[in-house]
Amino acid sequence: MTGQLTEPALTPTEPRRLPRLVLAGRDITVATAFVALIALLVVVAALTAETFLTPTNLTNLLKQMVTTGLLSFGMLVVILTGGIDLSVGSIVAFSGILTAGLVSGLPIPVAMAVGVVSGIGFGLINGALIARFELAPFVVTLAALTTIRGLAFVYSEVPIAPEDPGFFTLGSATLGPVPVSTLVMLAVFAVGGVFLTRTPPGRSIVAIGGNAETVRLAGINVRRHVVLAYTISGACAGLAGVVLASRVGIAQPSVGVAFELDAIAACVIGGASLAGGRGSVRATFGGVLVLVLINNLLNLYGVQSFWQQVLKGLIIIAVILVQRTNRVRS
């Protein structure tokens, strides 16, 4: 009797998953990747740009990351709800030029507070329109981008340069080797991290992006938390505008164009999902570091600014494609 050859049964092939690094029960893959990427960028910069490790450039690097960092945290909060805020660059322009204009008639701290409050007001309006009327965040904040930019030019068509030396303190003062403005940004990230992970409103904001209907059925006021998210974004943008005007010593109604792209890029590099519900404060901060290092390196190389914008757009697309591939595999 001759044996018969039988074909082995076909079984569905499981997708190959990327290896994970785990330490003390926690997945540190993303953190390790960020550290490795930042280290690589620093090494490349140190070897190819003679001025990278100079104290002047490092101080400028710390100052330059403040605006991107503040906007990125506010953007992360909005993205966690499944939204987007395209108006942050215009808020930076308006709050900065409003503060610079008020310095001549008000005490500097009061003028700066008014600038931040203006950002809070714009964020509150954005959030109310989106939550109350269930409008698309993209449309509302795009309209706000144009409107607020116009208001900045209505307030002053020409740059305003305050003469009071005290106006420059927030943007230029240092505490040891670290700029005060950088410490302010780090404090925002630290407090924001605690807010999003350890407080009921923060956890609700994250949950809304995952499934807003489930959150609503749990008895949580979704509209109120969406308004809160956009208000936080507006506050961060207002503070960023005040700090930027203080650092450069002049406020312009045209400043802040495409700043929202930097903020979105930092969040996406940090692994935040534009669909909402997924994102990390620490990873977003890592995204800010990566983005600022790339910008600084390109500046040292003399690369023109419009090519930098091209690179940022390509980075966003590439990271989104990687995120989608990982979701399919998992």
Description:
This protein is an all-alpha fold and 330 residues long. The chain folds into 2 domains: 65-265, no CATH class; 280-330. Helices cover 70% and strands 2% of the residues. The protein has 13 helices and 4 strands. A two-stranded antiparallel sheet has the order 1-2. The protein has a two-stranded antiparallel sheet with strand order 3-4. A hairpin with a 2-residue loop joins strand 1 and strand 2. Helix 2 (55-80) crosses helix 12, helix 11 (259-269) packs across helix 12 and helix 11 (259-269) runs parallel beside helix 13. The longest helix is centred in the last third of the chain and has 27 residues, at 222-248. It starts with 21 loop residues before the first strand and ends with a helix. Residues 7-15 have low confidence and may be disordered.
Short description:
With 330 residues, the chain is mainly alpha-helical.
The major beta sheet can be summarized as:
2 strands, antiparallel
Instruction: Quote the beta fraction.
Output: under 5%
Structural class computed from helices and strand pairing: mainly alpha
Order of helices and strands: EEHHHHHHEEHHHHHHH
